[in-house]
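Hi R.,

Here are the chain sequences for the assembly we discussed:
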Amino acid sequence: MIKNYFKIALRNLVKTKGFSFINITGFAIGLTCFMLIAVYVLNELSYDKYPADAKNIYRVNLNTTGNGEVAVYPNVDVAVGEGMKNAFPEIKATTRLTQANDFVKYEDKQFKEEHLAYVDSNFLQMFSIPFIEGDGNKALAEPNCIVISKAFAKKYFGNQPAIGKSLMVGTNADIFKVTGVIDKVPDNSHFHFDAFLSLTSRQIKRTTWSNIGFYTYLLLNKDVDPKKLETKFPQLVAKYVVPEVQHDMGVSLAEAQKSVNNFVFTLQPLTDIHLRGNTKYELEPNSDIQYIYIFSALAIFILLLACVNFTNLSTARALKRAREVGIRKVLGSVKKQLIFQFLIESVLLTFFAMLCAYVLIYFLLPYFNQLADKNISFGFFLGYQSIIVMLLVSCVAGILAGIYPAFFLSSFNTIRVLKGSSTSGNQKSLLRSSLIVFQFFVSAALIIATIVVYQQLSYMQNKKLGYDKEQVLILPDTRLLGKDQDAFKQQLLQDSRVSSASISWAVPGGPIRNGTEIFPKNNNGNGATIHAHIFNVDYDYLKTLGIQVVQGRNFSKDFPTDSSGIVINEAAVRELGWTGTNPIGKSIVRSGQQELTVVGVVADFNYASLKQKIAPIMLMLGRNYGGMLVKIKSDDVNGFLNDLKTKWSSFNPAGPLSYNFLDDNFAKLYSSEQKTQQIFTAFAIIAIIIASLGLFALSAFVIEQRSKEIGIRKVLGASVQNVFLLVSKEFLLLVAIAFIFSVPVTWWAMNSWLQDFAYRINITWWIFAATGIITFLIALLTISFQAFKAALTNPVKSLRTE
Amino acid sequence: MIELKGIYKWVNTGNNRTFLLKDINLTVKQGEFISIMGPSGSGKSTLLNVIGMLDEFDEGEYIFMNEPVHKLKEKQRAALYKQYIGFVFQAYHLIDELTVYENIETPLIYQDIKSSERKAMVADILDRFNIVGKKDLFPTQLSGGQQQLVGIARALIANPKLLLADEPTGNLNSKQGEEIMNLFIQLNKDGVTIIQVTHSEKNAAYGSRIINLLDGRIEK
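And here is the predicted structure of the full complex:
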C-alpha cells in the first residue's frame, strides 16, 4: 500500500513538473534561509559560554551620571577588582585586562600587533583557555612573560619551538619571555587577543578607584545573587571614590559625597556582553540582541512564506485532481487513506526540497560567512543535530502544508465531482487570498526596511560633518620617529603636494582616548560639572581638518599663554551654560584642579559616529602621543606615498610606516549598518522571489481554472485588455491590501530602529510610494505572463474541450 | 453578406498535412437561414468558427459585409465581430459565476455601452424571452432548455445581423429543441441571418438552405 502511495506520489511530482519545481524551489530557498539564520542565531547565543564558570563570571561596569546623562563604561580603575574581592566574601576571584597595541620584534621580524592584552596571572584560567604548551597556572605569574597563540608563534618563530624565546615589545624594546602557547581565543568570545602579557610588567603603583581603563571580571561563588551584591557597592564608593573626587576636583566633602549617587558600579553577566554590551569602549564591537530578534523573526517569516506557498499551490491544484479523488472513492478508498496519500506526497516534496537546501547551503555558505562575519563550516550542517533539525522542520512543514489540502481534497463530494460539475474554488479562495496578502505583506515590509536603511546609511556617509575628510592621510605611529616627529612634519610641509600637517593622535571617527570632568570657574554659567573629551593637538590641527572657528581664535605661537588655553566646541559652550555670553577669556577647572582659559570656539563637528550626539570636547596644545594627520592636494596619491615611505626610512624609525585614509576610516564606522542593509536587501529579494513564485503558479492555476469563462468572454467580444484586467484585478487587489497593511507596521518598526541614531533621516511618504509601485510592478509582471497567455489564447481551443 | 472564396484550412502533423477545410466556396445573403450538416469530423464547427472569425484560415478570401476579413487587422476584425455576430453553443457556455442578468449583460460591457442603456436593453430582451423571473438565478439553477434560452438571449442582446449556432439543440430534449427552432424561425423572420450546425435532419429542415460537408468539402 505504502509502496503504491510512493509510486503515485512520485509520478505526480514528475507529471506536474512546473508545479513541483516551483514548490520545491520555493521551499528549498525558505529552508536554506531558515537553517543559515538558525545557525547564525545559535552561534551568537553561544558567545562566552566556553569558560567552565561562565555562569558565575561578571564584568564590573561603571555608570556615571553627569548633566542628566548616564555614561556606561565597561572598564573600571586599577584597584576596584581587588578592593571588591577583599570586601566581599561572595567574590571568589577577580581578574583584570587592559588592551594595547604595539610593535613586537623577534630578530629581524617586526610587526605591529593590534591585539595585545596585559592581564592578571589568573585571567586565562578564569576563562578556561587551554594551553598547548607551558604551564597555565604559572605562565603569567612573573613580570615580562607572554602567552601567545599558535598563529602568533608561527608568525615569529616559524616551526621552531616558541617556549623560552624572547620577544621585544614596544619602542623601548622591553624583553618578554614566551611562557605559554594557546591554540587561540575561541571564535565565540567577546575578545580576541593574539597574545597575553603579564600585567605585573606594567609596574602600576597607583591604587585609585575613580578612573577607568581596566576590564575587570569577578568570579562569584555559586548561588550568589549579583543584584544583592551590587547594592553593597556604594559602601566602597563612599570609602574610596569620594576622597579621590574631593582631592582631584578640589571640592568640598559634601559636594564630593554626591558622587556616591553618580558613581555606580554594576555587574554584567559575562554571557550578556556580546549581545547587550553596547558601550563606546567595548573590547570589540559587539552584536545586538535586537538583531537576533529581527533575524529570528525573519527566518521564521521566510519559512512561513515557503509553507504558505506550498499550502496555497496544493489547495489550488487540488481541484485538478478532484476527478482522481472521486474515482478513488468509487473504487473504495476511505477518507483516511486519501489523507494519508496526500500527506505522503507533500512530505516527499519537502524532503526533495531539503536535499536541494543542502546543495544551496553548500554553495551559499561562503557568502553567508562573509556577510555575517562568521566562520561556520559546512560540516556543521552535516552533524546529527543539524540533520535532525532539517528533517524535523521538513516533516513538520510538509505535514502542516499538506494537511489542509489533504483534508480538502478528500472531502469532495463523489457524485458531483464525477458528474464533472465544477467544484468551484471560490469558497476556498479566502484562505488563498489571505496567504497571498501575507506573502506580499512581508515582501513590501522588507522593501521598505531596505530603502530606509539605505537612506540612513547614505545620509550618514554624505552628511556635512563639520570637517573635511577627503584626502587626509592618517599616520598613526609617528611616535616611532621619537624626537624627529617635528622634523618629519617640516619635511612633509616642504613637499608641494602637502597642504597641511598636524601632529595629533585625535582622529575623527577614531577612538576617543582622553576625557575629563570640567566645570566653569567661579560658578559662572550654570556651574554644572560636565564631561569633556580631550583632543591633544598642535597649531595646525584645525587647518588640516578644515574645522571652522566661530568665535575667538585658533592656538597661535604668538601667545605663549596658549599652553594653558583651550579651544572648545559649541556643545561645550551650551553645556557649560554659556549660551548667549562671550565664552572667550572665561576659565574652567578640570579634574586635578588645573585652570584653563578658553581662547576659541569651533563649530560642532561629528568626531564620532552619527549614532552619537556631538558631546563637549576641548582641544589642548601639547602631549599628543605621536600620530600625524596629513592633508594632501594631489591626485598622485601613490607617488606621494612612495616618497613618504622613502622619507620615513631616512629618519631611521623604530618601526615600519603605517597609514590609512580618513574617509576609509570613516566608512568603517558604519560597517554594522552596511551589514544590516545587505541583510535586508538579501531577505527582501528572497521574500520577493518566494512570493513571486507562489503568485506565478497560483495565477497560472486560477487562469487555467477560468479558461472556459475567459473563452466565453472572448467570444462575447472581450478584448485582450479586458481579459487581462479581469484576471489580474483580483491578484493586484490582494497585493494592494498587503501593501496597505505593511505601511503602518514598517513605519513604526523603522522609526524605532532610527531612534538609535542621534542624527537621522525622516521617513518620507515617497519611500512608501516607491515600495508600493515596486511591489505592484513585480506582482503585475508575475501575473502578466500568465494573463497575457490567457488573453491571447484562441477561445475555440478552450471551448472545444467541453 | 458573406462570401467565402477558396477557403482552405489545414494542420501539419509531421510530414502529413491534414485538411480541415478544403476549397470552401459559399455565399450567404442577408436574411438566409442556413443549416450545415455532415458527419462528425467533417469540418462543420471549423467552418462555423471561421465564419464567426474565432478561427483563422490558411488560404482563401472571406468577405463579410463588404469587408475583406482576411486583410483586416485583429482589432478591426474584433470590432466587426462585436457589432454583427452573435454565437450560440451546444453546451450553452454561460459563465457559472454570473447570474442570468449578468450573463446577458456581458457582451454589452465589452461594447462600452452605458450602464443605463444596458439596463434597458437587458430588460427588453428578458421580457421578449419571458425569463424576467429568472434574471437573478445562476446558470446551474436552470434547466438545459432555459440555459440555452439565456444563451440565445445573450447572443442577441447586441442586435447582431448574423447568429451562428453550433448544435444549439444537441443537449436538449426534443420538445425543448423544437421551441428553440421555432424561436430561430421567428428571429429569421425579424431579419436575423442564421447559420446553424446540426446533426439532425429534422432541425436542418427548419433552414432555408442546407449545406452538406464531408471531409472538409462542400458536397454538391
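Chain A has a mean pLDDT of 84. Residues 54-276 of chain A form one domain.

Let me know if anything looks off.

Best,
T.
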